[in-house]
Amino acid sequence: MNKRLTIAMPKGRIYEEAAELMKRAGYDLGADLEESRKLILEFPEQNIRVMMAKPMDVVTYVEYGAADLGIAGKDVLLEQDRDVYEVLDLKISPCYVAVAGVPDQPLSRIAPKIATKYPKVASDYFREQGEQIEIIPLNGSIELAPLIGLADRIVDIVSTGRTLKENGLVEYEKIADITSRLIVNPVSYRLKSEEIEHMVTNLSDVMEGIK
Amino acid sequence: MVKRLMFEKPLGMRDTLPFFYNQKSKARRQLSEAILSYGYSFMDTPLMEYHDTVGKVSATLDQQLFKLLDQQGHTLVLRPDMTAPIARVAASQLKNGEFPLRLAYDGPVFRAQQAEGGKPAQFEQVGTELIGDHSSYGDAEVIALLVDSLKQTGLDNFVITVGHIGYVKAFFSDLLGDDEDTMETLLHYLYRKNYVGFRECVKSLSISEEKKQALLELLSLRGGEEIFEASRSLARNQSCMQAVNELKQLYRLLKVNGVEDYIQFDLNLISHMEYYTGILFEGYAPNLGALLCNGGRYDTLLPSFELNASATGFAVHLERLVEALNDLEDQDERIGIIVDDDSYAKGKRKADQYRKEGHAVLLQHVDQIPDLPAFYAQLANTIDLTQVGGGQDE
User: Cα(B190)–Cα(B182) distance, rounded to whole angstroms?
Assistant: First the structure.
């Protein structure tokens, strides 16, 4: 008897790409999943159950074992430092985390301020650079902060660089490349190893162009 | 500072209410019975230790230790595990005892947690230490005892994953020579369960394709006994072969013990960056998001207390075990005797009689019961002496 797997899927921007990947791997989640308001969907014929979660929360569901597997951005994994297996780079929604700011503006010498949605990533990075900084946590429109003098720099996701450019900001350093990853709960990894291995193989075949 | 409300407790601290307390006692008793039946002796150590002795050598990260100062200004820690204190005792008061030492413990340990739910800062561990036996027979005994004691509690669908840190380290040094930084990085990726990072790191190394392939093959070394062949053909130096032989020997002994059905192997298993030195293992059970139990062989802890001995042991997270058992049946077997002024003496005699027979009996004056039906409902059996004939003796 195969054990049923619960998968936490990210809602929003990444969902379409993730669903397409799942489909190519043999898990058809249907077309209108995202339009539906349902949060939990059963696919008995494929022996899976899908949870729709906010991308930032997927890792939490998986760490606590509410979901066996999940698709989560590396940015969230870096920021949240959770106890999950990171088994596969799905190479979807590629982007990177970078330091940006107003052009030709040196970092303030007394307590430089960094505005970001990623406090841990930012402070880890500047610490490695030997720089002690102060974090200003923001939730969106991070680009505003250096423009109005709230912060010296921002640490944020860059995908095309258009937002930075249109606001007259430049990128200073790249911190890390980001793609979505397949993550697995440590207990499920052992107790449902066969089913999980099967799904990982299917997905990794797609990644390597076999399927 | 926010003023604390009456019901608040420090972060990660929990109350144990009667129902959970009973379940915990039951599970603790069953584990202990199995452990005692293997000839282990229970002992206890203080809740507080010096940071300089036990705190520094324990497997718990420094930032997770609860620290406090004594009156002389020494830094103390609340014990973060039982293995280090027991090592201290074994290396001092018990060093002239009968080796191998077979010691067991059950008690609370303390680990400061991040500000998040679901992770208690105080929890109870039941475990064993086998000190001074460095053979595979010792490893097998500890794992077999772990399986037997879990079975004793009624848990059945659990899995014990066994790894060997000696194999991984020897394998890396075979392929990477003395590039210790890379070895450390790769070990850290395995420890963090980050296989994507491991693969990327291997691909970026400037070593032959063949060696890279071998490093990547390591990730597939998990499963049943079939992995011994694969790990043997991947391994090239003496230490790797020795580790594989130890695993094979262990598996053979586990079969003799009849516990092989609960065992999986995974040579990528790294439970801790420095602590373990040979065979190590982790146990998992359904309906639990996190580890149920873990353990392994540690050879450097006792020498740090100036006792040259190898040891192995396991620890079960008792609260998680109770959660995994999910035994919701509330078996309240108490007898209630309801009395009034007249029937009190009779009730007392009756209660004593039942108590002598081993029952738990509560004697309750009727005037103090706010809700009679609810009072009846919570007990297995109730005897009402207020109506039948009052105070007259039979």
Answer: 12
pLDDT higher than 90, residue B337: yes
| Structure-token pair, residue A79 | 């920021």
Q: Given an 8 Å threshold on Cβ–Cβ distance, is A63 in contact with B289?
A: yes
| Amino acid in position B160 | I
B376 half-sphere exposure, CB direction, 13 A CA radius: 4
Say whether both B310 and B358 belong to one domain. no
CA-based nearest distance B277→chain A, Å: 22
Structure tokens at B370: 């706010």
> In this structure, is residue B114 part of a structural domain?
yes
Examine the domain organization and report whether B204 and B342 are in the same domain: no
Domain contains B12: no
Q: Does the pLDDT of residue B8 top 90, yes or no? A: no
Mean pLDDT of B159-166: 96
Contact across the interface for A85 and B264, Cβ inside 8 Å: no
Asked if B250 and B342 sit in the same domain, the reply is: no
Spell out which residues of chain A touch residue B118, defining contact as CB-CB under 8 Å: 64
User: Nearest CA of chain A to the CA of B286: how many Å?
Assistant: 7
Q: What is the ipTM of this complex?
A: 0.84
- Give the model confidence (pLDDT) of B103-153 as tens digits: 999 999 999 876 566 678 999 999 999 999 999 999 999 999 999 999 999
Q: Are B133 and B98 in contact (CB under 8 A)?
A: no
Share of chain A above pLDDT 70, in %: 97
Domain of B377: which CATH number? 3.40.50.12590
Q: How does pLDDT run across A113-139, given as a tens digit for each residue?
A: 999 999 999 999 999 999 899 999 999
Number of domains making up chain B: 2
Are A65 and B289 in contact (CB < 8 Å)?
A: yes
Q: Please tell me whether the overall predicted TM-score, pTM, comes out greater than 0.90 for this model.
A: no
Predicted pLDDT of residue B390: 46
Question: In B, which residues are within 8 Å of A84 by CB distance?
Answer: 193
Rounded Cα gap, residues B223 and A190, in angstroms:
10
| Domain boundary residue, one of B325, B345, B372 | B325
Closest to B295 in 3D by CA, of B100, B112, B162, B157: B162
How distant is the Cα of A83 from the closest Cα of chain B, in angstroms? 7
Partner residue facing A85 (CB), from B157, B193, B288: B193
